Amino acid sequence: MKANLSLQAVGALLAVMVGGCAQLHQYTPLPVVQHPSVNFNERRPSFVILHHTGNVGAQRALATLSNPVAEVSAHYLVARDGTVYYLVDEMKRAWHAGDSWWGAPMDMNSASIGIELDNDGSEPYAESQIVALLELLADIKHRYEIPAANFIGHGDIAPKRKVDPGVAFPWRQLAEQGFGLWCDQPFEPVPPGLDDATLLAAFGYDVSNIEAATAAYNRHFFGFEFSRMTDEGRGRLYCLVRKKRVGEGR
């Protein structure tokens, strides 16, 4: 009986692996290189979460993202040269977000498309990579009608443990194309009584660790690691909260 059970388990594992490596149904009309991963289950997207790989090359990242032992994946990987790899069916649940929060505790794996960017987290992002990313984001936004405010980083939804896509990521450039929110001076005065924690929470951040939330906000909107809020940061945050509340940038 033990031998039979073992054979059944091996058979089930092989079936999963074969199914995971089958040709993916391709939704985007853009040129992508299919590299199927076995790490997924069912879901439908309403967010896009951006990551950096922390690796020195796309091939190393692909090996990790398609390794069943690693139990980590993403829907897409955008290489430095602009090649877009498609790993997990967009309608499946890739494993990229982990324990996350945006407005409340949320299973972001079930609610989002995860995009990895071939970058070590501190280097400038290659122009060809950002061009390819913008094309991919435009296609995804059009097909799923994802609001501008719902294009965010892994460090935003997990500020106590993640920093990607890092300080060098061009969030302002993305926001100008409708992927994320942005505000520039002059800012309206912040009403009395609205403290940093209230504003950060209203925008979506987990404020159980206010320093981590502030650092995540500064990383995204100012491009530096700083765990205290500046006057300019507070003004920008109030503007962002108002934009999000009225649904601007859809």
Walk me through this protein's architecture.
It is built from nine helices and ten strands. By secondary structure, it is of the alpha/beta class. The strands form three sheets. The chain has a six-stranded mixed beta sheet, with helices on both faces. It has a two-stranded antiparallel ribbon with strand order 2-6. Helix 7 (196-203) runs parallel beside helix 9 (231-246). The chain is globular and about 55 Å long. The chain starts with a helix and ends with a helix.
Keywords:
globular, single chain, two-stranded antiparallel ribbon, disordered N terminus, 10 strands, 2 domains, Lysozyme-like, 250 residues, alpha/beta, 6-stranded mixed β-sheet
How is the secondary structure organized here?
Blueprint: H1 2-20, E1 33-34, E2 40-42, E3 47-52, H2 58-65, E4 76-78, E5 84-86, E6 92-94, E7 100-101, E8 105-106, H3 108-111, E9 112-117, H4 127-144, E10 151-153, H5 154-157, H6 171-176, H7 196-203, H8 210-222, H9 231-246
Parallel strand pairs: 1-5, 3-9, 3-10, 4-9
Antiparallel strand pairs: 2-6, 4-5, 7-8
